[in-house]
Amino acid sequence: MLAKHKHTARVTGCALALAWTLSSSPVPAAAAGIDTRPVPVGPTASALPEGWHHGAFMEIFVRAWRDSDGDGIGDLRGLTLSLDHLQELGVRGIWLMPITANADGDHGYATTDFRAIAPEYGTLADFDALIAEAHKRGIGVIMDYVINHSAAQHPMFTEALKGPDNPFRPWFVWASQMPQGWDIWGKNPWYEAEARPWTYSGDLKLMPAPPPGARNFYFGTFGPEMPDFNFRHPPVLQYHQDSLRFWLNRGLDGYRLDAVPHLLEGDAVRWNDQPESRALTKQLQDLIKGYANRYVVCEATAEPAAYGDPAVCGGAFAFGFVQHYIGAAQGQAASVQKVATHYTATDPAAGPQAASPTMATFLSNHDIFAGQRVWDQLGGDLRAYKLAAAGYLLQPGTPFIYYGEEIGQAGVPGLEGDRPLRAPYSWTADPATAGFTTGTPFRPLAPNRASHNLQAQRADPQSLFNFYKAMLTLRNTRPSLARGRQEHGFAQGLVAGWQRVHDGERTLVLINYGTQLAQAELQNLPANARLLSAFPEGGAQAARANAAGQASLWLGPQAVRVLTVETGARKAARKGASTPGQQARAGKAQQGKASAKTAPKAARKATPKAPAPAKAGKTRQPPAAR
Ligand SMILES: [Ca+2]
Ligand SMILES: [Ca+2]
């Protein structure tokens, strides 16, 4: 959601237990045009290959992606028309920021109808067409579901405002006196109902006390425009379960569940991440995964690892860790260490939960609290940018690329709040439209669209786009990179390395985050393993481990190397070595070669195959790529 300061409240006053409304009343019949009908389970089959969600996702803000009808606002048809681009890049999933009808007319997190498409984005038929076309390309679609609250303009809430007897009254959270002691990110989350339509326009943290005699307050974790649902009133959950099924029945491949630690509040002290919220999240996960091959990821900024656990949400964005991908790319040794060892089970500092492979990783997203666009965080340093990308795209977890990240799109300076992050996508260098629309874009365009647009990036072999494409190709062609466990993470100065293993396939990833040529001293490799280059150049043998599993390899400045680890046994099987004598002789020869290479000075001077330092430095990203 939008919260900027997710932390436990410090309560100075006494905590007031809430008189939550408990009821077993049924879901009210359709009121004010709102569809509350039950939605039974429909078709549950999946159109996607098993494990599709181990591929990379792109987070797409539909409003800013592509406009198909010239009104200056992105829409579902525009997205459907651009699916070939996503397929070419190699993404396997799309996360749609809210596409349901909403009151805010921008990011869409203030929902006015949980079962309708925002009119400016299109229709249900457009949605169905998007799903069908995405599935044809092996791409899954998940969407935001904003379950904690509605828009204040939602007819359910406007009904509830009518009084205690209204059937929707218990759908929201009320108090007849201003509850005391609440502090959610510096704000009192209780709002006087009679003050609607809301007249106070100042900082909510400085909101004046209500007039004496006020007797009608509602609760809104995220402010007065987004009243919280009352999940202690059973029809509320029933309605949302039906609404989740509404989209799953149409072929949706899963959800990004918004702000789930806020589903249920206890009291003024215990309002965040309560056990009931975790239990309810698990219920939602179970409903969604009752459909085949679906994926769920939760936003839980304070306790992401807990929500990533299969016993709660089964996926969560790795807030608190992912900034190390940027930090490492900036050459910060502590971040290099963290990236190298985070997912390695033998790292005692990380802990088993922190290293859960069910986490979702990213470099930035649509919220400013998660950081500026990567371009701005790294000051346009493309070498560092590529290192940041390689880090998360080659590690466990499900990576989420924020739209525009893959072309180096910059934020728009001078806009308020999250808007600098949410500019129209730069398709071309067109100064007036960036190829986003034939009309007038709804928001100013990215300032670097002349150079960092898809058209230009696609044509440049050294571009970010082609680097992202190469990383996703590796991920899509190597199960070990997509879903393998991580082993033997290590950091040596500014060099990080790790192995990924799945079903007999072993891949070694090495990243030199430093600006100097570096020699990685490798350990924990299979005895006598051959290291074959998979990136940047494929095929050639780069090194061979000795009998103790050690090898040595040069890395150019700010370079990424990905290597296939081929064991002697596998090689022998491949080549059809038949007799034990042949295999023993081959092993001896490998040992001899490997021990020569593991002597660093000898490797540098005497081994003809060791890359000369200057050449290693040139293997990637010539100065022109900066
Ligand atoms: Ca449009
Ligand atoms: Ca809530």
Give a structural overview.
The protein has 2 domains: 52-149 and 235-471, Glycosidases (TIM Barrel, Alpha-Beta Barrel); 485-625, Immunoglobulin-like (Sandwich), CATH 2.60.40.1180. The protein has 20 helices and 21 strands. Helix 9 (323-329) packs across helix 10, helix 9 crosses helix 13 and helix 13 runs parallel beside helix 15. The longest helix has 19 residues, at 580-598. Mean pLDDT is 86; it is low at 2-24, 350-354 and 571-626. The chain binds calcium ion (2 copies). The site of one calcium ion has 6 residues, from loops.
Question: What keyword list fits this structure?
Answer:
eight-stranded parallel sheet, 2 domains, globular, 626 residues, binds calcium ion, single chain, TIM Barrel, Immunoglobulin-like, six-stranded antiparallel sheet, disordered N terminus, 27% helix, 21 strands, disordered C terminus
Q: What hetero molecules are bound to the protein chains?
A: calcium ion
Give the termini separation.
Answer: 35 Å
Strand order of the largest sheet: 10-9-5-2-1-13-12-11
Given this structure, which CATH class of the largest domain is correct?
Alpha Beta
CATH architecture descriptor name of the largest domain = Alpha-Beta Barrel
- Please, what is the oligomeric state? single chain
Number of domains: 2
Q: Biggest β-sheet: count, sense, barrel?
A: 8 strands, parallel
By secondary-structure content and strand pairing, the structural class works out as alpha/beta
Low-confidence stretches: 2-24, 350-354, 571-626
- What would the principal axes of the Cα set say about the shape? globular
Q: What is the radius of gyration computed over CA atoms, rounded to a whole number of angstroms?
A: 27 Å
Q: How many helix segments?
A: 20
CATH homologous superfamily (4th level) name of the largest domain: Glycosidases
Mean pLDDT comes to 86
Count of beta strands:
21
What name does the CATH topology of the largest domain carry?
Answer: TIM Barrel
